[in-house]
Amino acid sequence: MKRNRKRILLIATGGTIASCYTEEGLVPKIAAEDLLRYVEGHQEYCDVEVTQPFGLDSTNIYAKHWLKLTGLIQERYAEYDGFVICHGTDTMAFTAAALSYLIQNSPKPIVITGSQKPINLPVTDARTNLQDSLRFASDHRAHGVNIVFGGNVIAGTRAKKERSKSYNAFSSINFPNVAALYDGRIVFYIDDKDRLAKPLTFYHRLNENILLLKLVPGMDGTVLGRLFPYYDAVIIEAFGVGGLPAYGKVSFYSEIRRWTDAGKIVMMATQVTHEGSDMEVYQVGKVIKEDFHLMEAYDMTLEATVTKVMWALGQCEDAKQFRSLFYETINHDVLLQEEMDSPDKKCQEEI
Q1: Catalytic site residue 16?
Q2: For a Cys staple, 207 with which of 150, 170, 313, 348, CB 3.0–4.6 Å?
């Protein structure tokens, strides 16, 4: 007997899961409605309808597509109990983070999945990932934006693709998995749906004038001067726990002053995947942070940092309000926040 079946909207966007081999390499060609032909048994717990707003290799997906997905989900939100987005793996973590900021406090699940092999191959991870995603999206405990991949459920702001070919491509960075799927069963490690306190909110603005700059040994501050006219914010991937070099013809110190005096955002992050930044540890970080009250990403992923800067700048232009928005925890994205940036507590309360 089929009872309590959930209504799920499957949103196909292309990616490896929907690709076919051509002379020029893999290209997304499998239609949205055909993806379901490869998955059996989901009819016992959900009814699925499909739509395809675009069909792209995820290398070609960026902010305008995130906004399109947000608009689509908002338009269809009342009709369905959950949403599953099939997506390419290469920029999946960016999309999951972006949707976490654009669609906040959703009591309904918004699941993003894909695969390392096309769904029409005899041996592939695609069928399992899609089946798991439909099952998770049909569970009454599921909510918010998550990636379901390789048997793991990862908060949308904590996912990172760490393997380019293996089926266990994604890891949760500096945060535990939300849940895991075993033989059709879901084991929740974080079951916090009952603690949703804020209302569902959709956002429709992003500022794309953001640059992620990776330091290499020998780079000096000249690069920031050249970038100054073109960007409203720069995220600097520093070495270790964070700091800026003191060598070169043009000092980073003087260029940081130029950016901050102009009201532009300078965000410090780290090239190290795990454990996050802490600019207070070494003189190369502590002095410049204190002199300019620089912001840092702490334990956030780079994908979450980039998309959160886009989102926060899209909502405001004031630097103090930006700081308040950025350090508000959204979908588990940052743990080290107010206590690490206490001078802004008064600002947060005022806003």
Answers
A1: yes
A2: 313
